[in-house]
């Protein structure tokens, strides 16, 4: 069974920090692209950061310099370090994986996320930033 489990969400004031973690199992982690997404209160689905299996990376412009994604192959885990948080970062954050020829794919948390074509999704972690 494929599992992605996020942890580390919570509520902080603007300017604060949080670290999200995603522990995975049931699929070949090193062969997978891993990403962090967020579903905003307005139901927008943003790709926040991604590290492909070949090491190439992507970071959303609005979080560059504030958020850092990392992946730990030996632990099948990815993290998202979030600093200098802003109220507009408030969202449910999801960990997701893309694996070519994946079986028994998970449904995305919202139809807005479907276009990214990810194979597996976690249940999400709420992040709330107050001003």
Characterization of this structure:
The protein has no helices and 11 strands. It has 131 residues and is an all-beta fold. Strands 2, 4, 5, 6, 9, 10 and 11 form a 7-stranded mixed sheet that branches. Strands 1-3-8-7 form a 4-stranded antiparallel sheet, with no helix packed on it.
Descriptors:
about 130 residues; seven-stranded mixed sheet; mainly beta
Structural class based on helices, strands and sheet pairing:
mainly beta
List SSEs in N-to-C order.
EEEEEEEEEEE
**Silhouette:** globular
Segments where pLDDT lies below 50 for 5+ residues?
none
How many distinct helices?
0
- In what range is the share of β-strand residues? over 45%
Terminal-residue CA separation: 40 Å
- Biggest beta-sheet profile: 7 strands, mixed
Radius of gyration: 14 Å
**What is the share of helical residues?**
under 10%
Q: Give average pLDDT, whole number.
A: 96
Number of strands: 11
Structure, briefly:
Helices cover 0% and strands 47% of the residues.
Topology:
Blueprint: E1 3-7, E2 10-13, E3 18-25, E4 33-39, E5 45-51, E6 57-59, E7 67-72, E8 77-82, E9 91-98, E10 120-121, E11 125-130
Parallel strand pairs: 2-11
Antiparallel strand pairs: 1-3, 3-8, 4-5, 4-9, 5-6, 7-8, 9-10, 9-11
